Amino acid sequence: MTKNTNRQYAKALFEATKNLKGEKLYKVLEKFAGILARDHKLKQSKNIIREFVKYIKIGEGIKEIQITTARELDIKTINKIKDVFGNNVEATVSIDPSLLGGVRIRTEDKILDASLQTQLLKLKQIIA
Asked: Dihedral of CA 95/99/105/107: which sign?
């Protein structure tokens, strides 16, 4: 028997609860909790819910990006970066001094790395 991943559970929950409200939604959630208990996945419920929220955002056309910089960015710069990725963008900003400068942007499936740290590593490889 193959084990389901958290993403598979989240997708199943998303499909099962689509357009449900009230008592019908409650019953589906109750059954889903039973399935998680049966499969010994209750400890993974936070991760499953996180994946479930991703499916909801995808369905609503919301793109998530993670912006990592060496120093704090002003809101104007953050908004310019978000504009590049479209209208419905949610950005999480974090600071990593090891980048030295520049920015690293992570989307669901891509990493755009314009950090000084990466540029210096590339230069080092070329010279060596």
From this structure: negative
What mean pLDDT is predicted for residues 9-36? 92
Contact between 11 and 55 under an 8 Å Cβ cutoff? The reply is yes
Contact between residue 64 and residue 88 where contact means Cβ atoms under 8 Å apart: no
Nearest CA among 49, 46, 35, 27 for reference residue 4: 35
Tell me the three state secondary structure of residue 112: strand
Residue 73 to residue 57: CA distance in whole angstroms:
25
Secondary-structure breakdown of the chain: helix, strand, coil percentages, each rounded to the nearest 5: 55, 20, 25
> Virtual CA dihedral for 17, 19, 24, 29, nearest 10 degrees?
20
**Model pTM?**
0.67
Per-residue pLDDT tens over the stretch 62-120? 999 999 999 999 999 999 999 998 889 999 999 999 888 889 999 888 898 988 888 88
> Taking the chain, what is the end-to-end CA distance rounded to the nearest angstrom?
50
- pLDDT of 1 over the 60 cut: no
* Dihedral sign, Cα of residue 36, residue 42, residue 47, residue 50: positive
